[in-house]
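TICKET: design request
STATUS: open
ATTACHED STRUCTURE:
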């Protein structure tokens, strides 16, 4: 059930959680330094949540949707967050040349908006001095 809050990038704020629940992980790096992802993205004050949201500062993105709902994308998550996502700027990360995106440890060359949020998908966004991102270890039950 939708609320009176506006849909963001086609995603309504729902009062009822979907019957599909999984987690992806997002890590932001500027010059090798980790940037903390806020813990209440997609959870406005009130009784609703957007289908891609966070609960804590650990970078875990919770996806709660109906089984027939397409998986949200990284671009939709950033739209819900209200932050930019381009090849030069991603949230507060900036690079004079290009921001790098890694999906499950492999550099992603396409449009970062289109990266699907999938179960246990690990996404690293890196700006500035390059490093080799470490894989994210999902705890049992996530």
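STATUS: resolved
RESOLUTION: sequence designed for all positions
ATTACHED SEQUENCE:
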């Amino acid at each position: 059930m939708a609320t009176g809050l506006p849909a963001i990038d086609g995603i309504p704020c729902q009062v009822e959680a979907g019957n599909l629940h999984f987690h992806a992980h997002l890590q932001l790096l500027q010059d090798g330094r980790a940037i903390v992802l806020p813990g209440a993205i997609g959870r406005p004050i009130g009784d609703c949540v957007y289908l891609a949201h966070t609960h804590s500062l650990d970078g875990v993105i919770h996806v709660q949707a109906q089984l027939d709902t397409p998986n949200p994308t990284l671009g939709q998550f950033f739209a819900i967050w209200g932050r930019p996502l381009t090849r030069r700027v991603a949230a507060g990360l900036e690079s004079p040349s290009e921001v790098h995106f890694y999906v499950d440890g492999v550099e992603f060359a396409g449009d970062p908006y289109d990266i699907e949020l999938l179960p246990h998908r690990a996404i690293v966004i890196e700006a500035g001095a390059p490093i080799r991102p470490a894989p994210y270890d999902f705890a049992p039950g996530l």
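CLOSING REMARK: Helices lie at 74-81. The chain has one domain: 20-127.
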